[in-house]
């Protein structure tokens, strides 16, 4: 049973709320002043699921024992493909343009042949294709009259070893060993310029089948020859096919390959 003083205290508390009263006090006052009511609150739990690539990696790792392969849109490494086989062709070259002619140097990939064991071997080494085109105007060249010359691996090495005062000459007969031997003669001469500022490339072609005799020459400066020499130095191992051998080296295959070659004739096995 409440006393009159307590009833007046409750009435005053509800009638004049303080502006500085906290939210908890407001709740208390509202609960004391308002008539009793029943509130029904329904809570519904929502679950948020986040699945990352790490989860996919772990799941496939547990199932297969190896990491997942990249998605289809991501290119795979060349080591997973047969040597010499690429998804698409890529054309590259180094071009030099001068007043009398233009020169373009392009690599040509080696060729591979499959063996019965499933392996591959180099059936034909790559080479560098030199294309000379005469000028027909200011910075204009007639590529329909171009003359080509293919540098083999030994010839590339000879060209790369030239000193400032050295020269070299290469002779090609496309029909050598055939009935038409001698009917087409190609001679490429590389000589130092008189002032020592570079080299002089001169390609002479004599074609008796077409009754044609052509000669195209172009000066190559020292900086241009340095770039050409650097490109040749980089591409030679690829022309030999050594990149395919390096890409095929796998740690898990080393033991099997060494055992298969146990009877091979090694120098240190003698």
TrEMBL record:
Alphabetized UniProt keyword annotations: Transit peptide
Biased composition (Basic and acidic residues): 53-62
Matches recorded under Pfam families: Whirly
GO biological process: defense response; regulation of DNA-templated transcription
Gene Ontology MF, one: single-stranded DNA binding
Superkingdom of the source species: Eukaryota
Region span, Disordered: 52-85
Protein family (similarity comment): Belongs to the Whirly family.
Protein name: Single-stranded DNA-binding protein WHY1, chloroplastic
Organism from which the protein derives: Zingiber officinale (Ginger)
């Amino acid at each position: 049973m409440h006393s009159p003083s307590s009833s007046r205290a409750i009435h005053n508390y509800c009638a004049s709320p303080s502006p500085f009263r906290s939210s908890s006090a407001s709740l208390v006052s509202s609960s004391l002043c308002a008539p009793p009511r029943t509130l029904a609150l329904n809570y519904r739990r929502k679950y948020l699921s986040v699945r990352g690539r790490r989860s996919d990696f772990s799941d496939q790792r547990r199932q297969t024992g190896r990491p997942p392969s990249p998605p289809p849109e991501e290119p795979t490494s060349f080591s997973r493909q047969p040597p010499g086989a690429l998804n698409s062709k890529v054309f590259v070259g180094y071009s030099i343009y001068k007043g009398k002619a233009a020169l373009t140097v392009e690599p040509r990939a080696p060729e591979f042949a499959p063996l019965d064991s499933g392996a591959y071997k180099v059936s034909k080494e790559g080479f560098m294709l030199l294309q000379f085109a005469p000028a027909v105007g200011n910075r204009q060249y007639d590529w329909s009259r171009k003359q080509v010359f293919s540098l083999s691996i030994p010839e590339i090495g000879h060209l790369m070893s030239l000193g400032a005062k050295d020269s070299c000459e290469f002779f090609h007969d496309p029909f050598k060993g055939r009935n038409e031997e001698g009917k087409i003669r190609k001679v490429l001469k590389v000589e130092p310029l008189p002032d020592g500022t570079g080299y002089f490339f001169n390609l002479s072609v004599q074609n008796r089948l077409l009754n044609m005799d052509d000669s195209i020459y172009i000066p190559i400066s020292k900086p241009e020859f340095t770039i050409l020499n650097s490109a040749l130095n980089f591409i030679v191992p690829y022309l030999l096919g050594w990149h395919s051998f390096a890409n095929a080296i796998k740690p898990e295959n080393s033991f099997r390959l060494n055992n298969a070659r146990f009877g091979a004739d090694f120098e240190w096995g003698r």
